C-alpha cells in the first residue's frame, strides 16, 4: 500500500505548461539601413621582445610616465621630472642592440607607422 497508488492523477494541460515556461523564439530585427563598415584600428608596431615589451608597458603605466617625460628628464638632466630609481629601472629594461637596429630599420621602412607604447 503506497500513497501514490491511492492518489488520483491531477489533470495536466501540456499546452498551457509549454506556453507558460517555454522560451519565446527570438525575432531578428530587419535592418533597413545599410551597415556602416567599422573603421579599422591602427595597427601598432611591436618590435621589442614580448616579455620586455610587456614589462616596460606595465612599468610605464604603473609609474604614470610618458615618453615625453622620459625624453625631458634625460635631455634636461632633471631628476625632478623622473626619479633616479625610475630612470635606473628603465635603463635595466632597455632594448638590446639587435632590437634597436630592428626598430631603426622598421622606422626607415615605415616612418608613418605608430609604435607601441614600450617601443616609443
UniProtKB/TrEMBL annotation:
GO terms for molecular function: actin filament binding. Coiled coil: none annotated. One of its GO terms (biological process) is cortical actin cytoskeleton organization. Residues 101-120 are annotated as: Disordered. Residues 103-120 have a biased composition (Basic and acidic residues). Belongs to the formin homology family. Cappuccino subfamily. This is FH2 domain-containing protein.
Amino acid at each position: 500500500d503506497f500513497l501514490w497508488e491511492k492518489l488520483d492523477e491531477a489533470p495536466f494541460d501540456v499546452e498551457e505548461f509549454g506556453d507558460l515556461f517555454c522560451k519565446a523564439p527570438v525575432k531578428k530585427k530587419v535592418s533597413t539601413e545599410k551597415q556602416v563598415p567599422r573603421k579599422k584600428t591602427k595597427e601598432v608596431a611591436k618590435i621589442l621582445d614580448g616579455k620586455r615589451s610587456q614589462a616596460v608597458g606595465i612599468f610605464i603605466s604603473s609609474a604614470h610616465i610618458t615618453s615625453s617625460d622620459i625624453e625631458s628628464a634625460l635631455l634636461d638632466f632633471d631628476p625632478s621630472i623622473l626619479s633616479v630609481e625610475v630612470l635606473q629601472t628603465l635603463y635595466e629594461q632597455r632594448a638590446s642592440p639587435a632590437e634597436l637596429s630592428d626598430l631603426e630599420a622598421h622606422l626607415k621602412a615605415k616612418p608613418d607607422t605608430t609604435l607601441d607604447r614600450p617601443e616609443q
